[in-house]
Design brief:
Blueprint: H1 3-14, H2 27-43, E1 45-48, H3 57-67, E2 72-78, E3 99-106, H4 116-122, H5 126-134, E4 140-141, E5 149-154, E6 160-163, E7 169-176, E8 180-181, E9 184-187, H6 198-205, E10 213-215, E11 222-225, E12 231-234, E13 237-238, E14 243-251, H7 260-267, H8 272-276
Antiparallel strand pairs: 1-11, 2-3, 3-5, 4-14, 5-14, 6-12, 7-11, 7-14, 8-13, 9-10, 9-12
Helix pairs in contact: 1-4, 2-5
């Protein structure tokens, strides 16, 4: 069986295609796309509730339990851009605002052809649907061999502080929630390809409630998010149960990868591709 055939078979088992017929044309798919586009236009974020069938979730949780030991657990301090300090700037500047980051990522090379998590990403119907929802003409699976399909695992006390994503579009699948905490907070469209809007970023970091939205994702929910331009974070977790979220990444170029600095922070290692392709972006944002 080919990789695409295997992925299709697994995805059709896991995805609630009655509710989300993303693999077939017709009025139902068109209406679904229209609804998603409206939500993306409003706040850069759309959630497909119950995208994964409830009976399929135990298989995804079991897979995450198996690979969690390979997660790169990292405890450090980072600014929203994953860059070094800039001592020449005022202490209040966002480039100088550093926060504790304490969670882990299982890199993409731990999700092979038999992976339920990867099967959804490799399903031939999936990327075209996401592209149609985002209405992007230049759209590719992320070219980073460590980061196209990953799982973020978080444990008690962990969280992910305010940050921007490296790639324009991130698609996340909630697999298992912590007992408490782990809420997703974001400030939509805070910057643009030509404007960092440091003043707006500073307001969010200072807790301005008029700029912050909160979202609680349940296991099985799929989220489409424009994380390159929207500042976002995950609030700290409470309780013994781990939080698992699969992250599917796409980009506007086929050869894009994360910066060596960020890749080393998130995954504990870099590959030759990260050094060879560093800086291949279509914007000039910090990161």
């Amino acid at each position: 069986m080919s990789v695409s055939m295997q992925a299709t078979a697994m995805a059709l088992t896991a995805v609630d295609t009655d509710r989300y017929p993303i693999h077939v044309g017709g009025a139902a798919r068109d209406q679904l796309l229209a609804d998603i586009r409206a939500r993306l236009d409003d706040g850069g974020c759309a959630v497909l509730k119950g995208f994964i069938r409830a009976q399929a979730l135990p298989d995804l949780v079991a897979e995450c339990d198996r690979v969690q030991a390979w997660g790169h657990r990292n405890f450090n301090r980072t600014n929203p851009y994953f860059t070094q300090d800039h001592p020449s700037l005022p202490p209040s500047h966002p480039l100088r605002r550093f926060y504790d980051r304490s969670n882990a990522f299982v890199p993409a090379d731990h999700f092979g052809a038999d992976s339920w998590v990867r099967a959804i990403y490799e399903w031939p119907a999936f990327a075209p649907f996401i592209q149609a929802a985002l209405q992007e003409t230049s759209f590719y699976r992320y070219g980073d061999p460590l980061a196209d399909v990953i799982v973020n695992l978080s444990e008690a006390g962990n969280g992910f502080p305010w940050h921007f994503d490296t790639n324009n579009y991130t698609v996340t699948l909630a697999i298992q929630n912590a007992e408490r905490g782990g809420d997703f907070e974001y400030s939509p469209g805070l910057r643009s390809p030509t404007d960092e809007n440091y003043a707006g970023v500073e307001r969010v970091l200072d807790g301005d409630p008029t700029l912050i939205r909160r979202l609680v994702l349940e296991p099985g929910d799929l989220q489409i998010f424009r994380g390159r331009y929207s500042l976002h974070r995950v609030t700290p977790l409470v309780g013994a149960r781990r939080r698992y979220v699969a992250i599917y990444s796409f980009a506007e170029r086929p050869d894009m990868v994360g910066s060596p600095e960020r890749t080393r922070q998130l995954y504990g290692r870099v590959l030759p591709e990260h050094l060879e392709r560093a800086g291949r972006r279509d914007d000039a944002l910090v990161d």
